[in-house]
Amino acid sequence: MKVGNFYLDNANLLNHLRQLFGRREQGGAVIDYGKLCLAVKEELEGYFNEPVRVLELYLYDGFVKNDEEKRLKKARFVFSVEKRLKEACPEVSFKPRLFEVYLGKGKRLKGDDVQLALDVCNDARDKGLNFVALFSGDGDFESLLEHLELRYPELVRVVVSFKTFCSKCLYDRAHYFIDLEELIKSVRFA
User: Fold this and answer.
1) Residue 80 CB partners (closer than 8 Å, separation 6+)
2) Do the domain assignments include residue 52?
3) Is there a domain that residue 38 lies in?
4) Is this prediction's pTM over 0.85?
5) pLDDT digits (tens, 9 = 90+) for 45-55
């Protein structure tokens, strides 16, 4: 049995989902994270040709500290993700990582990319993982995959993203790429 962790860059996934399918308020797609976890797990079982166990699912996202309405909306979102994940994959430990977003000069800044990279490196070192699945198409993670490739060559690097928006460097450095455009029909809310 292969074991590993999922690391979801939620801002990246939602941004690309909206670009492809529109905003939720306009009838766009909304991801069911429980179904997403199961679908990716099944893809990995096909890739490895043996059972897969996901130990932990990390969800990285940001919130605006002084906006109470958005903060509460984010809390409801995280609760919903945890609920659906526990229904679909009760054995998976859910680890939300929320970061305060700093707004300045037209740019939103938060530290979730750095925390995600640290979590992946620490887990690769300490948890005896066979694979890590990065749910992001952000080219900023190229150096993370390069580090994993050099330091842990036996660790399978999986990238889960929308191929249309995925950075070529991530696609090239991954052992296995899962295109969310192919999975979206099975992981969206009805």
Assistant:
1) none
2) yes
3) yes
4) yes
5) 999 999 999 99
